[in-house]
Amino acid sequence: MDRVLGAEVEQFLKQDKELFVGGRFVPAAGGRTFSTLDPSTGAPLAQVAFAGPDDVAAAVAAARAALDGPWGDLPASGRERLLARLADLVERDAAVLAELDAVDGGKPRSLTAAVDVPGAVEHLRYYSGWPTKLEGATLPVGLPGALCYTRLEPVGVCAAIIPWNFPLMMAGWKLAPALAAGCTVVLKPAEQTPLSALWLAGLVAEAGFPPGVVNVLTGDGSTGAALVDHPDVAKVAFTGSTAVGREIAAKAGAAVKRVSLELGGKCPNIVLADADLPAAIAGAAEAAFFNSGQSCVAGARLYVQRAVYDEVLAGLAGAASGIVPAPALDPEGVLGPLVSAEQYARVRGYLVDAVAEGARVVAGQVPPEEPGGGYFVAPVVLADVPATAALAREEVFGPVVAVTPFDTLDEVVDLAEDTPYGLAAGVWTRDLASAHVLAARLKVGMFYVNAWAVGDPAAPWGGVKSSGIGRELGRANLDAYLEPKTVWVVHGTP
């Protein structure tokens, strides 16, 4: 279908896409720009400013000045009001933001409207309640006549580097806790999906945040690298691939910077023989194919107890065959294209190699070498995938699921744990004893029972092993942006 955009989005796409530094939109110092594309067609959407080292320096300087000036002087109640105001503005512009993320990233507008934008609003509202609740403590120390207490202070200037699969929601995940803690932020959106972050920057200004509190730099990995390297950046918060996360962790370690990493996953989804099979099949399809499989918590490895393996495999194949990819603005669409030609080629490569190694395609097909207009890949269900195949071990980030039978809990634990990742896992069962056993034995940051990828702003999100360091969301995420300072006041001579 033809792309039909709302008037506000059409007008926005025609405007210059500049950087947001020090409370205003400015062109890149070097005048460089890049194109952001519509994954549904492969056609350019807009030209966007490309931030270089000079722009990074200007943004960090603006963030530092705000921290040392009006933002640092603002009482906690002021931060609370501004975050709540920003949440209101995002909610007001929900339709525009949903459309921008859809057309820029390829996700169906129905999903960005139902998931991404409300998710950003919920997180801003949740953290807007925290600034006035952040308390130090008076400590019962052993030194006579001494008062010892702690202050919770902002870490400083934070670099927030976000991925392309949930652009607006990830911006909310990064900005909300940092601002609640009193930090200032330089936000770097993914080069594939910069548009909603730039609209959000305008809302930051409208909400009344002091200049420099939030800055938005668009560009590619070199922009993010310059931001990570800047000596005045005190903390890096990154969501993205494990490979890039390792590079950031190495740099942050060398510079002794705070870092939090929400990285990749190869998540095992387990179906026991006693499960509610229709619910398990529907849940497995949602886990594997939501957002075209472009999710760190995609249930890309499905382990099914042998007694119900054939039934679940057939049911999942039927569900997959009923999902037809469509352009992001198709009102009936539930599965959009992959985000880019590079991602299309990557997913196709995994499928080609797996089939060559003996995997059996049960539903869907290996997509053609050339994608044509948009980067569409229909859901693919595979069986008999060799354990040594790259598709079985690496994060594909596409609508692909490998289904494997097992007999015992011990066996499925061994299968599920045969991975360097540890983000999420889940089980479908009526036996809560088995569910608790698996929850305890699988080394993951999140575990789901008869559900998949449920979440809430109050519930910590993140993984272990190669899936990351630290947690997003909840009170736990605030700690990543706060430094406890111990103060001793000694009266008289000990």
UniProtKB/TrEMBL annotation:
PROSITE patterns: ALDEHYDE_DEHYDR_CYS. The keyword Oxidoreductase applies. GO terms for molecular function: aldehyde dehydrogenase (NAD+) activity. Pfam families: Aldedh. Coiled coil: none annotated. It is an enzyme of class 1 (oxidoreductase). Its EC number is 1.2.1.3. Keywords: Oxidoreductase. It comes from the Bacteria. Residues 26-487 form the Aldehyde dehydrogenase domain. InterPro entries: Ald_DH/histidinol_DH, Ald_DH_C, Ald_DH_CS_CYS, Ald_DH_N, Aldehyde_DH_dom. This is Putative aldehyde dehydrogease. It comes from Saccharothrix espanaensis (strain ATCC 51144 / DSM 44229 / JCM 9112 / NBRC 15066 / NRRL 15764).
